[in-house]
Model the fold of this input.
Amino acid sequence: MTKHYWLMKSEPGAYSIEDLQRDKKTHWDGVRNYQARNFMRDQMKAGDGVIFYHSNASPPGAAGVAEVCSQSYPDATAWDKRSKYFDPKSPKQKPRWFLVDVKYIEKFKRFISLEEIKNDPGLTGVMVAKKGSRLSVQPLSKEHFLRIRQLGHKGYSSGPYAY
DNA sequence: GCCAACGTTGGC
DNA sequence: GCCAACGTTGGC
Done:
C-alpha cells in the first residue's frame, strides 16, 4: 500500500503539537464530518505522514509532523453520553464515526504560518490555503508534505537563501 | 467578535 | 429530492 500524506487540524487551545509531544500518541477523536471520516476510515494507514496544523490560532499554521499509527476504528466518544462528541445516531452495533491513532514525530523549528503557506511557490494549490477550506482532515500530496516539512526545518523560504 | 463559507437537518 | 433554516468552522 502506498504511503499517503495528510494535514490534520487541531485548535491548539484544545490540543496542540506540544500536547502530542508530551503524550507521544493520541486518539484523533471527535471528528464529526463525513468527508474527514471517510479519509480516516477508508484511506489512512499506519505509517502515513501527517502535518499537524494549528487552526483558530494566531497565527494559524503548520506546527509539526505526526504519523498515523493505527488502523481506523470506531470513535468511542460517540457512545459516551457525557462527551461533547456524543452522537445517539452512532450506535455500537453500527458505528458512524471513526478515528485513527496518531503519534508524535517532530515539532518544527519554525512555525509555518498559513500566510507563508499561501505565499510559497512550492505550495500552490494546497487545500488548506483555499478560501473556505474547513475540512479538518485533508489529503496532502507528497510534494506538499515534504515542502512544508522542509520549510519547518530550514528557516528560509524566500530571499537569497531560498531553495 | 464578526461573518463568509460550508455542512447538516428536516419540512414539504 | 429540494431548499430554507440553522449550526459550525476558522480566518481575520
